[in-house]
Design a protein that fits this description.
Layout lengths: L3 E10 L2 E7 L15 H13 L20 E9 L5 E9 L5 E6 L4 E2 L3 H9 L5 H10 L7 H4 L2 H12 L2 H14 L1
Antiparallel strand pairs: 1-2, 1-3, 3-4, 4-5, 5-6
Helix pairs in contact: 1-3
């Protein structure tokens, strides 16, 4: 089973006062005019699930908080690889580190390293945040850069995206046996 994000709720996150987005099975489209917060929704997922930095490359909570507010919250309901539903709550503060809590649907709250637990529950591997940003977010005005990279860099990127390394390994194995 693959991880499935069911719902994202944003409170005072960037331009969002209180926004809830529910995802359905299959492909979901977030559509709207420029500057309405579409990228912020995807960035919130990336920030809390994959521990990525904000658009400026900083890790300060201040950049995630709506102007005039003291904190912001992101709630994500998801189904993990074990088939169980979880809720991840992340609160950002202007001057303190973010606070994360992870609960399963029975109310059991996990302690310890939340990011490590997310990696385990969702099959998220170190370095996945770059792939997420390239594929899911399709960084504004940067997506085309993948195609401008050198052949070797482009090959590495697409190998990560499409997991084509397995086919290369099968080909190499077959070729070795036939020689």
């Amino acid at each position: 089973m693959k991880m499935i994000i069911k719902k994202v709720q944003l409170e005072n996150y960037r331009s969002h006062s209180n926004t809830t987005v529910e995802f359905t099975k299959g492909v979901n489209l977030i559509l709207g005019k420029n500057g309405r917060g579409k990228t912020s929704i995807l960035e919130a997922i990336s920030t809390v699930m994959f521990n990525t930095k904000d658009r400026s490359g900083k890790e300060t909570g201040k950049s995630y908080i709506k102007f005039g507010e003291k904190s912001s919250k992101v709630y994500i309901d998801f189904i993990a690889n074990d088939g169980r539903e979880y809720n991840l709550k992340t609160e950002f503060f202007k001057t303190k580190p973010k606070k994360q809590t992870l609960k399963d649907m029975t109310g059991y709250e996990y302690d310890g390293d939340i990011q490590e637990k997310l990696e385990e529950l969702c099959g998220i591997k170190k370095g996945f945040e770059e792939t997420y940003e390239n594929i899911v977010i399709a960084k504004q005005n940067e997506f085309i850069n993948i195609f401008k990279d050198s052949g070797t860099t482009r090959e590495k990127t697409f190998n990560k995206i499409f997991n084509t390394q397995i086919y290369k390994e099968m080909y190499d194995s077959f070729f070795k046996r036939s020689c």
